[in-house]
Amino acid sequence: xxxxxxxxxxxxxxxxxxxxxxxxxxxxxxxxxxxxxxxxxxxxxxxxxxxxxxxxxxxxxxxxxxxxxxxxxxxxxxxxxxxxxxxxxxxxxxxxxxxxxxxxxxxxxxxxxxxxxxxxxxxxxxxxxxxxxxxxxxxxxxxxxxxxxxxxxxxxxxxxxxxxxxxxxxxxxxxxxxxxxxxxxxxxxxxxxxxxxxxxxxxxxxxxxxxxxxxxxxxxxxxxxxxxxxxxxxxxxxxxxxxxxxxxxxxxxxxxxxxxxxxxxxxxxxxxxxxxxxxxxxxxxxxxxxxxxxxxxxxxxxxxxxxxxxxxxxxxxxxxxxxxxxxxxxxxxxxxxxxxxxxxxxxxxxxxxxxxxxxxxxxxxxxxxxxxxxxxxxxxxxxxxxxxxxxxxxxxxxxxxxxxxxxxxxxxxxxxxxxxxxxxxxxxxxxxxxxxxxxxxxxxx
Length: 445
What we know:
By secondary structure, the chain is an alpha/beta fold.
């Protein structure tokens, strides 16, 4: 493999252009990034973590640090790790390859083998607790970890145990999470809990202002993009607990509308750009459907079909649910237009295979829902907080679910973050709709 001069990988300062790939122009770094990048790896702690707000240049600074680590002399493997190899490619390698230029790296996406300026790295995904077996028996000299709070604890602790060579170094970046997260309690605050890691750990909090390349307009956009606990973490860079009601701060009176306050013409042809239905499928649990209208700026929930089999005292079959969906349920759900060409698409949880087959057999266009929970809750809250999602007053079942949607306090005390799995079906309907249909730029535009 043809390489440029090895010293091209490490500029004397991060603003230097010489030697780094000719395909991009590096923008200025802030003081924190400059100090971090220019410091010799020999002067670093065993564990080095950059924590803080989104877009604060943590990952970008870590990318340049990787170039310096190509020349750092240490025994053992060099690894890049994160939630998955695909996530590492998107978050780290894409930018890194653009910086160094095509002739200075080769990467095998199947094996994860990366050669960078003649130095070998391994890219390893760590998506669950069982991932630690991938590094058992390995000797690691350098580890670079993307989004540490998303990494399984078992994997991280196994990784530390593999870093036995003298001078070994771990570098990671992360947004804040719960103050009870293992990363905060056991690693960053190790001395507080008598784990003795303090002398081996260096960490620093970064904010939006540490990235000199963000305009004030974009900073304001980011601030509008996150509400509640996510604003505290992703914008202010704070380790705060997600507790109590999830949506109480954003379910303000102007979220709700009725037939009088509905935008004129919304339901007519030309009044909306798309109509679709989102469904949370249930058998023993409730089955809930929402009828959504999207005018390109605001998402409107016009109607609901909410069937609770426990309250009704009987269960419905997939065929009965499909008939009610298309023809109407007699309880306010309007059904589909008579002209099949006008039928809305239906978003369904991917796990509801048999119900999807039933709908498809009747000519309904079915879409698999994006069922990512944590990000879906955040985006639902942001849509409500920015008044980009409004709900008709008659949707009393979904409204009740939204108003009682709460964090699981027992899980939070363990450092886990998830909602209580009770009366959350209407919330799932809204989450599926927003995750599947609404792009990020619309939430805070």
